[in-house]
Amino acid sequence: MIVGAVFYVVPLFLLLKINHTALSSYNGIGGITPAGLVSALPQNILKTYHYFGIYFLTDTLKTNRLQYFGAYNVLLLLFAVLTVLVGIKAWKVKKSHIILPVLAALATPVACNAYMLIAGDKLELQMAAGLAMLAPLIMIAAFSVIGEKRMPKAACVLFCVALVYGSSMQVWFDQEAMYEGRNASETMAAQVITDLKSEGLLSAGHEYFFVGVPAKNPLFSVSEAYGCANGYAQFGNFWTSGSCTQMSYKGLIGKHMGLDMQMSYSFYGDIERRVDISALPQFPNDGYISMIDEKTVIIKIGEYEKYSEYSAP
Known about the structure:
By secondary structure, the protein is mainly alpha-helical. It has helices at 2-18, 34-39, 41-57, 71-93, 99-112, 129-146, 150-198, 224-228, 244-256, 268-272, and strands at residues 207-211, 289-291, 296-300. Helix 4 (71-93) packs antiparallel against helix 5 and helix 6 runs antiparallel to helix 7. The chain is elongated.
């Protein structure tokens, strides 16, 4: 892992130097240096254990419908039992060999979160491939240790089927949430466009500032699947940090509705100093559309909420 990190970082900084390019400041990437990576290594190793626990012992990331019924607890228990069995076999061969399965078990969280040694700040589902691979690897090890013992082998087969089922169901929930959220968001956007036109405020010369997200509006209609999905799949529950909300509406109306409405990328605080947004009604009540100057139109879909980690995709 260390060698891989070196081969990643050294060419990166070499290419940046050759092309006279600086690292982006996005998520602090511009502050990463080789010396910083080395000094942060002990802390990042500890983070690999922390995020290992988040993945398998919490529902922060929804990866398997059966995780709520202790499927991952069973998986980790099986891992512990396998470590003990392998340790006993190693002890019988040579007592000093018992350290090998113990070290392997201790290194597992680090191996699963190897990217954390470089990136090191936050667990994202897109970066959880190593963690996801642990389940099949544990089951392969289980079949290897069990051999031809029928009952344990049958139990492992059933457990494998359950894990695959739970994983597949979670994928379905995520896809259904995207489908339902898109339908509901597009329906609301279509009505907003109609209302803007009826009030004579649909114009290329205006800039539109949206407040709130579709998912927080009482009329946003989805099934229970929406709430069971991961945040990133909850179409309509846009990020609210920075200009993310406006960019999301730009994508919704521009990409999905085919209408090029110019968005205002002012910050909420700047707009709030000019008008009491909290006093405005929200969609679809009369007055949810308000023009605050010759150019800027406010469209209040829902109440403003500050962004917090894991509150949005």
